[in-house]
Amino acid sequence: MVWPIGLAAAVVLAAAGPALAAPPAALPATARVVLRSTDVDTGAPLSGARFELWRETNDRAGLQSTGPAADERQDGGCVTAAKGVCTVELTTGETYYAVQVAVPAGYERPDEPFAGFDLREGAAREGLVVNVPNRRRDAEYGGGIRVRKRDGKTGAPLHGAVFEIWKETNATTGLQTAGVEADQRARPGCATDADGTCDFEGLADGAYFLVEKDVPEGYVLPKNPVAGPWRLDGESGRRLVLTVYNKRAEQIPTVGADDDRRSRTARAGAPPE
């Protein structure tokens, strides 16, 4: 038998019934980050490099690891094994810094104190590799590459162009800048001065690529910003001068190589008219 009930009784019964469970909150996506330590001159993997990971939390450029407004150090960290790599799992959608707090035996600390990287959503599928090269403490090399930036029409020096030098270390044709088999960035970026020049010193023998990262105001990056490789060895006197020409309009820059020791110039092309 079904007994009719009033509105007030129905409200009481409804309140006493079991509440519907809220759907579980979606867990944040995470991604695998591979930290890679290598010899900057040979690309050989290095074991014993210990890393800390920090998350950007204070909206200030770069890593702040001390003080009341410091960024957030992540639990864990890792130490590279025989293959020169170790892995951590981090939440995507954040900016992080990898800090090498212990170096492989016989090596110096990196040229740059930390490596910053954005862990985007796509990294959850593909992962991310962060390369941190080290140089031997006793490494003394006399090689050097000077970069000269010039206006393609007038030949005037251009201030504020930014370049990187990468060394060929993986025996694969062309420059590879990412992944566990990447070539080595030999030195931090260099910006041309008022004379339109910047210098990369202390380089070992080998083949090098020049990468144009930024140009002075009013100029444009070339479609292919990578030039080279050029060989730095006894034949070149271990000193090279690379001249890069750019126009204000769309164009492909011309790159030349000057041999200081022999006081002659071997160019890949003349400056555009």
The major pleated sheet works out as: 5 strands, antiparallel
Radius of gyration: 27 Å
- Identify the CATH architecture of the largest domain: Sandwich
Q: Tell me, what's the shape? A: globular
Distance between the termini: 101 Å
Total number of β-strand segments?
18
Give a structural overview.
This protein has 273 residues and is mainly beta. The protein folds into 2 domains: 30-134, Immunoglobulin-like, CATH 2.60.40.10; 143-267, Immunoglobulins (Immunoglobulin-like, Sandwich), CATH 2.60.40. Helix content is 5%, strand content 40%. It has helices spanning 7-16, 123-126; strands at residues 30-39, 50-55, 72-73, 78-79, 85-91, 94-102, 115-119, 128-134, 143-151, 162-167, 184-185, 190-191, 197-203, 206-214, 226-232, 239-246, 254-259, 264-267. Strands 2, 3, 4, 6 and 7 form a 5-stranded antiparallel β-sheet that branches. The longest helix has 10 residues, at 7-16. It is globular and about 70 Å long. It starts with 6 loop residues before the first helix and ends in a 6-residue tail after the last strand. The relative contact order is 0.14. Mean pLDDT is 82; it is low at 1-16 and 259-273.
